[in-house]
C-alpha cells in the first residue's frame, strides 16, 4: 500500500492501546493523535460515550443558573439535559425527557416555577419530582361500573426526572452522566471524583472569588472543525506570532510559562500580563482580595474535555466547546468580570474594547483550526511530530484522550511529578 494514501483505521482499533503507541512516546519523540480522531464519524461516536458520557463536562457558567427557577438547556454526549436552580437555591441537573412517553420537555433555557411536558401535561418540580399526571387515574370503566385498580401499580413519586450529578467550581457548572456518579455513588464519592478532576485549580485560584463573577458579554460561534482542534489551539502559544500579531503585542511568546499541577487539565501562565501600559487587558480594576502572585499573571487553563479559561486579574475569557459532529463544533464564549467592574462609564468603554479584542482573537483562531480540519481529511497525513518546547500540553492532552478511549483511569501528574528532561 502507498504510504501516502493509507486507509483509515477500523472502528475496533480506536479502543486498543496499540493504536496510540506513537502518542505514548516522550514528547520530543511523539506524534500527534491519529487523523481519525478528528475526522472519523465512528471515532466521534465512541468518543461521545467514552469521554463525554464518562466524566465531568462543562455545560455552562454559574450566572446562567443563579436565580431560583433558572433552567439551562444544553446537550452532553448527544443527550439533552436540564441544569436547574430550585426554589431553595440548590443546583440540580436532569435528563430533558418526560417519564411518560419520552417527550423532550424544554427546547430553550428559561426561568420557570415548574417543568411541564407539552404532550400530556405531566408536571415536574424544579427538584425533579413528579408533581402531577393529569387524568392518569387508577381506574377503568366497564359499562356503567367504574372499577378502582390497585393503587400500587402507579405512584408518581417513582416517576421523577432522571437525575444527573452536577457540581460547580468558580463560575463554571459541570455534569457527569456516568451511572456511578448519578445513581450509585454517595455524595462524598461524587465530590471526591470532581475534586480529583480539577486537581489544584480551586486552591490555586481561591483568592479570585470566581464564584461571584458575572457574565458581561457572550457570543456563540459555529466552527467547521473537531472540538479537539479548538482545544489544542488554545493549549499552545507556538502559533501566536503567526496567527495573532495583535495578541502578541500584549502577550509576548517569551512571557509564557508552564503552570501545571495534577489534574485533568493543562495550564500555562503569562507574566507579566502585558508590556503595553495602554492595553485593554490592564485598564479594568482587579478583583478585590486578589493574592499578590496573581496580580501580574494571566492564566490559560483548559479543563478536559471541553472548557478553556483565560483568567486575568480583572476579567476572564471562557470558551465551552459542544461537539456536534466529527467536523463541527459549537463554541459558547463568555466574558466574565468581578462584581462592580462596570459601575462607571470609563470602565464600560474599556470593556467594550475588550469585547472587540477577544472577538478578533477568537475569529483568527477559528480560521486556522478550520484550515487544520480540512488538512486532516487528506489521507497523505498520518500524524505529525510534537514540538517539545511549545507542545507538551498537547502531548498531555493526547495521552489523556487515549486513556479515556481505552478505558484507562489516570490523573495526569503535576510538574513536580513529571520526569525531568535534559
Question: Which terms would index this structure?
Answer:
seven-stranded antiparallel β-sheet; 11 helices; alpha+beta; 422 residues
Topology:
Blueprint: H1 21-24, H2 36-39, H3 41-52, E1 56-61, E2 70-76, E3 79-85, E4 91-95, E5 110-111, E6 115-116, E7 123-124, E8 130-132, E9 139-142, E10 145-148, E11 165-169, E12 172-176, H4 179-184, H5 187-198, H6 201-204, E13 214-223, H7 227-235, H8 240-243, H9 245-250, E14 256-258, E15 265-270, E16 298-303, E17 307-311, E18 316-325, E19 328-337, H10 345-376, H11 388-405
Antiparallel strand pairs: 1-12, 2-3, 2-5, 3-4, 6-7, 7-8, 9-10, 11-12, 13-19, 14-15, 15-16, 16-17, 17-18, 18-19
Describe the model.
The chain is an alpha+beta fold and about 425 residues long. The protein is built from eleven helices and 19 strands. The strands form five sheets. The chain has a seven-stranded antiparallel beta sheet. The protein is globular. The two termini are about 40 Å apart. The mean pLDDT is about 85.
